[in-house]
Design goal:
By secondary structure, the protein is α+β, with helices and mostly antiparallel strands. It is about 20% helix and about 40% strand. The strands form two sheets. Strands 4, 5, 6, 7, 8, 9, 10 and 11 form an eight-stranded mixed β-sheet that branches. Strands 1-2-3 form a three-stranded antiparallel β-sheet, with no helix packed on it. Strand 2 and strand 3 form a beta hairpin. Helix 2 crosses helix 3.
Length: about 190
């Protein structure tokens, strides 16, 4: 018989900092076993998406971009922040965001879309989730339509090349590696 832990009781909560990309709240929480944590910090982010995109020829659409936090360029999946379109919310908004991001960042679109998995960057401190979508049969539909703050190169790679990229540590974003490996577990 399993006795799973119970949710914590929030005794107080206050926002320490509120900006669109950095919102932090401090909570005092009591655990069911009587434990007490007076300073528990939660980072609030909007939900995120990423896309494992496979062309009609079976190639994976990867991108490369500079990430200032680690001062390096690596391979990634197309990704972004979930936005609401015409009143959409939840998974519907996530799918619309994923389709728009793939088209804008890579020029690829169309195909068949499904939810591959839902992930959390760190459920201990982050309030959001990442919806990872699988898009199969995508095709080049337009040129990239990047924002001024985006510098992204597009790379079409085979499944074997993508596995080698992961094995060599050339894709290090955990929220991108996990969906890619999930895709391979379903197809190889």
């Amino acid at each position: 018989m399993h006795n799973d832990p119970l949710p914590w009781q929030v005794e107080s909560s206050e926002y320490i900092h509120t900006l669109p990309w950095f919102t932090v709240r401090k909570e005092a929480v009591r655990m069911a076993n009587g434990g007490y944590i007076p300073d528990y910090f939660v980072f609030e982010y909007p939900n995120w998406i990423n896309v494992v995109a496979v062309t009609t020829e079976g190639q994976l659409v990867l991108i490369r971009q500079y990430r200032h936090g680690i001062s390096a360029v690596h391979y990634e999946l197309c990704a972004g922040v979930v936005e609401s379109f015409d009143g959409t919310a939840g998974l519907e908004a996530a799918l619309a965001t994923a389709q728009r991001e793939l088209l804008e960042e890579t020029g690829y679109g169309g195909g068949d879309w499904s939810l591959l998995m839902t992930l959390s960057a760190n459920p201990g401190t982050h309030s959001n989730v990442t919806y990872a979508f699988l898009a199969t049969g995508v095709q080049l539909m337009q040129e990239q339509d990047l924002e001024l703050t985006e510098e992204i190169s597009v790379h079409l790679v085979s499944a074997q090349e993508a596995l080698a990229i992961v094995d060599k540590g050339e894709m290090i974003q955990a929220l991108h590696v996990a969906p890619l490996l999930r895709y391979f577990s379903l197809t190889i």
